[in-house]
Amino acid sequence: MTSPDATDSPNAPAASLRDTSWLSIAAIVLIVMLLGSVAADIAGKAGAQVVTQENWSEVLNAFLLALLVNSPALIFIGVLGDFAGLFSRTGEGEVFTPRNLKTLRSAGSGLIWAAASSSLIVPTVLSWTTQDGRGVIWDVNDLALGTGAMGLAILGLAHVFAEGIRLKTDSEQII
Questions:
Q1: Range 81-110 burial, b when 16+ CB lie within 10 A, else e
Q2: CA distances to 6, 17, 88, 98, 124 from 14, in Å
Q3: Per-residue pLDDT at 175
């Protein structure tokens, strides 16, 4: 008779859940790549200038505008961080938990904010800073629409996930 290993225990995650752990690593790699891209972009726009007493406000303005332009990527980095944690926890067998529900809601909202930032907030504020004064600008593209739609879909899945948590809690109380 063979001895049972950790995968045979009732508390061990199913093989399909253990396979989600690699997605956590992939998300972390994407975070590092995006951070490098954002840092390079900000350095290119504001890092080449030497700060002096006379031009510090121009350098600060260039830095803040570079941050603004990169805000959708920075929000997306946060969403990837949410997913990295979610995939790590599901790989350990933690699936229908309030923490994962909060993560799904946060990720869905983050994607919607990233879409709004790239199509509405950034173009409008850039217009104001260049003195065009065109008011509110709606500069939507397919990527922003897709990102917003994914955010809405994830928020919808979060509602389904909440029902799964409720059913899990009910079944645990019966047993």
A1: bbbbbbbbbbbeeebbeeebbebbbbbbbb
A2: 11, 5, 14, 20, 48
A3: 72
Residues 6+ apart with CB under 8 A from 108: 151, 152, 153, 154, 155, 157, 158
pLDDT bin (cut points 50, 70, 90) of residue 2 is: very low
Token readout for 144 is 């922003």
In angstroms, the CA 119 to CA 170 distance is 43
Give the tens place of pLDDT for each residue, 111-123: 999 999 999 999 9
Quick one: how far is CA 167 from the chain centroid?
28
> Which DSSP string do the residues of 142-172 spell out, in sequence order?
HHHHHHHHHHHHHHHHHHHHHHHHHHHHHHH
Is residue 100 a contact partner of residue 86, using CB atoms and an 8 Å limit? yes
| In the block, residue with structure tokens 């303005």 | 61
pLDDT at res. 30? 97
Go through the chain and tell me how many residues it has: 175
Q: Which amino acid is at 146?
A: G
Does the model's pTM come out above 0.85? no
Give the percent of the chain with pLDDT over 70: 91
